[in-house]
Description:
Two copies of one chain form a homodimer. The N and C termini of chain A lie close together (about 10 Å). Chain A is of the alpha/beta class. In chain A, helix 6 links the parallel strand 5 (about 110) and strand 6. Helices cover about 45% and strands about 20% of the residues of chain A. Chain A has ten helices and eight strands. In chain A, about 55% of the residues are buried. The first copy, chain A, has a single domain (about 5-215), classed as Alpha-Beta Barrel (TIM Barrel). Chain A has helices at about 15-25, 35-40, 45-55, 70-80, 90-105, 120-125, 140-145, 150-160, 190-195, 200-215; strands at about 5-10, 30-35, 60-65, 85, 110, 130-135, 165-170, 185-190. At the A-B interface, helix 2, helix 3, helix 4, helix 5 and helix 7 of A face helix 2, helix 3, helix 4, helix 5 and helix 7 of B.
Amino acid sequence: MTKPLIQIALDQTNLPSALEVARRVESFVDIIEVGTILAFADGMNAVSTLRQLHPEHILVCDMKTTDGGAILARMAYEAGADWITVSAAAHIATIGACKKVADEFNGEIQIEIYGNWTMEDAKAWVDLGITQAIYHRSRDAELAGVGWTDADIEKMRQLSELGLELSITGGIVPQDIYLFAGINAKAFIAGRALAGEKGQETAEALKTEINRFWG
Amino acid sequence: MTKPLIQIALDQTNLPSALEVARRVESFVDIIEVGTILAFADGMNAVSTLRQLHPEHILVCDMKTTDGGAILARMAYEAGADWITVSAAAHIATIGACKKVADEFNGEIQIEIYGNWTMEDAKAWVDLGITQAIYHRSRDAELAGVGWTDADIEKMRQLSELGLELSITGGIVPQDIYLFAGINAKAFIAGRALAGEKGQETAEALKTEINRFWG
């Protein structure tokens, strides 16, 4: 199991603010994500600008692709994304279409887990050659005060056992990292927690916890 | 039951091509949709430009919102959208957040039906005050040759009975319109079929069929 990486989600509603955050965090994050909000705000220009300014980082375009997979995937990879997200609610044909384009670009796709998915669905993703998924509390569920549950952790373990590397997000704080011990965690994703004044401190605290549990 | 409208989905990968299509079809469509592809290509600039050029049309932003509902909804309504789409896979808190912003702008939201949804989910949407949903064959499913089934029509009838107006899409052709008779259809959505050389002819054939079945 490799050590989980740290990912910043850029969810600003305009590109200049996002670029400023990216510049501030680049030394202590491994992965830069063009969040859905930023991607809808500025389009693929956000991806290509961040690619140009941060050539060494892994760049994710969080499209939560649900349909029109081949075209959306191509747009994002051509703009410079390394990984794109695809919604768990997408038809399996859409997921397959994305995977095919990803392979062409040596890119990867991450299944973003939302809605009433099943472990059968997850097996179908793995059968397509998918190796990554994103597990999270919805931003809005988080705002509604819904925390990490034993059921969440159990599902993560099962997905992990199917062979999926998981990126974990939704109000991630250093003191919660122990919850995910033993899970094949690809990355921990945060936005404001890393973008703020104490961002570097938070990233270091996350890394300390990661080293404790994925030593 | 009101007569179904005709909606063009603009899914071009760049704004100039989309504007050209919109200009060509404006006289025979009621609703202009900034498709997910176009919205990701050019961002909210696509919405505000189309709003400016087509002030009298209903303008939809097809975001398939899955999370971060309040921010995405606000972005789209501020750019001039009348309606936005929200994924059926979104957490109910996300759908509620979108609805709240919609109300503030006198906008509407359309639940875009994807994934393993249930009629219980649909009831929860209606309880939130949602009045519209989009039912379709996935673009990729359509490419894979999956047609309209009796199960599709039955689900549409049930959604209709719950009080949802349905916009129907996925390879819509005039000769299929009779399939949807009796359903509370808000609009029929097409892209290439309306954008092409025979677009006006197709729109007229659609309207003839609509008049037959929603007379």
